[in-house]
Design goal:
This protein is an alpha/beta fold. It is about 35% helix and about 10% strand. It contains ten helices and seven strands. The strands form two sheets. A five-stranded parallel beta sheet has the order 1-2-3-7-6, with helices on both faces. Strand 4 and strand 5 form a beta hairpin. Helix 3 crosses helix 9. The longest helix is centred in the first third of the chain and has 18 residues. The protein is globular.
């Protein structure tokens, strides 16, 4: 399936994915909800916005673009997206975290559409850089995207990959940072500040943009621009997001990573338009 222009209402699709993610949590409260609500517009832009080539009937298609979801625990919102696109039946969404289901609390490559193991944080960017180098050596047309969290960038392996990608001029690689400013145990800046990420990545030789990560059209425009840019520099989009977006008590709470909203809160939200 060749990547094409936008042929869906991305805002409506993002709202739908938000609601579907709440429904997954309602059935399987062991999933990481807050971390999975902040990157919705990122994934909607990538998968519905004509930015990536993929074939749901052949997930291992050689000509596909790669998306490495490094913050795997925070990508439960991908389950309804992949089901909607036809990677697996939508009925599987009813069985998340149940015995015999391939949709677990932390995704892995047994799920059609996931490329890599996404358990221990800090490895996705290195894997993506290796893939981008291999494709570049083959002179392949494919792009490689990798989605990380901001707290994940505390891991030193990421910065080795950032230097490696710049050294090897991997302009077929795009890093998207879900910059929700909260890691596992509190606000990122209070634990180990990353400063202004765009400036820091630029200092390492990356072409970097910043955007409101919940403005799906702004995210799409930025990613479209980066996809078209091939100037010898790896590319990054810092998407400023809100952890737990739209859920009272969870949104932007410093301990939201390990919080579980009550079913009453979720049920009430599902009866109303998305905040």
């Amino acid at each position: 399936m060749e990547a094409s222009g936008v042929n869906v209402d991305l805002k409506a699709k993002a709202d739908w994915v938000w609601r579907q993610t709440l429904k997954v949590y309602r059935r399987a409260p062991e999933v990481r909800l807050a971390s999975s609500l902040s990157p919705i517009e990122i994934f909607v832009s990538l998968y519905y916005g004509g930015l990536m080539r993929f074939d749901p009937q052949n997930p291992a298609w050689e000509e596909r673009d790669r998306c490495i979801i490094s913050k795997g625990h925070g990508s439960i919102c991908m389950y309804p997206i992949l089901a909607d696109l036809g990677f697996f039946p939508a009925s599987e969404l009813e069985r998340v975290c149940q015995a015999g289901s391939f949709l677990g609390g932390i995704p892995d490559p047994v799920i059609p559409g996931y490329e890599t193991v996404n358990g221990s944080l800090g490895h996705g960017l290195g894997v993506a850089s290796g893939m981008a180098l291999g494709l570049k050596v083959k002179d392949g047309p494919q792009d490689v995207f990798v989605v990380t969290g901001d707290g994940e960038l505390h891991e030193g392996a990421n910065w080795e990959a950032i230097m490696f990608a710049a050294q090897n001029r991997l302009d077929n690689l795009t890093l998207v940072v879900d910059d929700n400013r909260i890691c596992m145990l509190g606000f990122t800046d209070e634990i180990n500040s990353l400063g202004r990420l765009a400036d820091r990545l630029g200092g390492f030789g990356w072409h970097c943009l910043e955007v409101d990560g919940h403005d799906v059209m702004a995210v799409h425009r930025a990613l479209s621009h980066l996809k078209k840019t091939r100037d010898g520099r790896p590319k990054a989009l810092v998407a400023r997001t809100i952890k737990g977006r739209g859920v009272p008590g969870l949104e932007n709470a410093p301990m939201s990573h390990v919080m579980s909203p009550s079913f009453d809160v979720i049920d009430a939200l599902l009866q109303e338009p998305r905040p």
